[in-house]
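Whiteboard transcription, Tuesday session. T.W. wrote the structure tokens on the left side:
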């Protein structure tokens, strides 16, 4: 395994990812699969959340029971548009999470990430952040998102995607070696247009039916 990259290879996630890759998968089905995978990925990414123990009473007896230790709810940051698909699934699992949005699109010729929107919770310095986007291709969007989030200084940052290219992982870790990547798969390479091969195509277009 590449340093600081965790491949979440749960069979349910792998099966659903294969369905998402299929050319014939409809927009409605693609969206639903991404939401389901978002939920399953969130389950794995939050595995190391610290717990504290609190005295509670069940109808039968008192006990010391585990509760999440963080004083402030975590923040999920979606890289629009396609990040919205994962975000929806995560919010089903962690409904009280705070949410931030970064609007980025890749310039089709230069593949540079262009920002068009930025809104995150004000007290983010006291919170852990999970940035989500299904695709890590050149890594330009993920790097730009982490650059921006580091400016507002959260307690910690993780990056979660569905598919990563080796080129994107290398670029991301060159810029942000301190930020762990979680992904469901690492594909083979990028084509001449910066698309992940074999990949699943354009995640935003497939999610919203824009092409
Ligand atoms: O690693 P990179 O080379 O930056 O590519 C990955 C980015 O490309 C896609 O977004 P896109 O720019 O297509 O915007 P969209 O979500 O609005 O379609 C994807 O959702 C990532 O944000
Ligand atoms: O393969 C890719 C690369 C970037 N963005 C996508 O949506 N898909
Ligand atoms: Mg797109």
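and on the right, the sequence the group agreed on:
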């Amino acid at each position: 395994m590449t340093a600081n990259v965790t491949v979440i290879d749960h069979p349910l996630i792998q099966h659903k990812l294969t369905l998402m890759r299929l050319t014939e998968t409809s927009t409605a089905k693609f969206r639903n699969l991404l939401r389901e995978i978002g939920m399953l990925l969130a389950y794995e990414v939050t595995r190391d959340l610290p717990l504290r123990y609190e005295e509670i009473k069940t109808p039968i007896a008192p006990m010391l029971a585990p509760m999440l230790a963080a004083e402030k709810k975590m923040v999920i940051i979606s890289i629009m548009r396609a990040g919205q698909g994962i975000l929806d699934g995560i919010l089903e699992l962690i409904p009280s999470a705070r949410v931030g949005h970064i609007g980025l699109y890749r310039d089709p010729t230069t593949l540079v990430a262009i920002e068009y929107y930025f809104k995150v919770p004000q007290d983010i310095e006291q919170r852990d952040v999970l940035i989500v986007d299904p695709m890590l291709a050149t890594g330009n969007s993920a790097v730009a998102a982490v650059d921006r989030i580091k400016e507002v200084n959260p307690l910690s940052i993780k990056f979660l995607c569905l598919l990563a290219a080796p080129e994107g992982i290398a670029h991301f870790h060159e810029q942000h070696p301190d930020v762990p990547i979680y992904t469901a798969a690492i594909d083979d390479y990028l084509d001449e247009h910066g698309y992940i091969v074999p990949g699943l195509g354009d995640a935003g277009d497939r999610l919203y039916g824009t092409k």
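Someone added at the bottom: The two ends are 35 Å apart (CA to CA).
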